[in-house]
Amino acid sequence: MFTIYHFCYSLRMVRADELYDITVVGAGPVGLYAAYYAGLRECRTKLIETYPQVGGRLISMYPEKEIFDVAGHRRIVAADLIRELTDQAMQYRPEVVLNERVTGLRILGERVIELTTPAGVHYTQTAILAAGCGAFVPRKLDIPHLIDLEGHGIYYFLPSFEPLRGKKVLIVGGGNSAVDWALSLDGIAAEVTLCHRMYKWQAHEAMVHRLLSSNVRVKYPYFTLKQVLGEEKVTGAVIWNERSGLEETIEADAIVLSIGMLTNIGPFREWGLNIVGNGIAVAPDMSTNLPGVYAAGDIVTYPGKVLLITAGSGEAATAVNTAKEYILSDELGR
Question: How many domains does the chain have?
Answer without folding.
Answer: 2
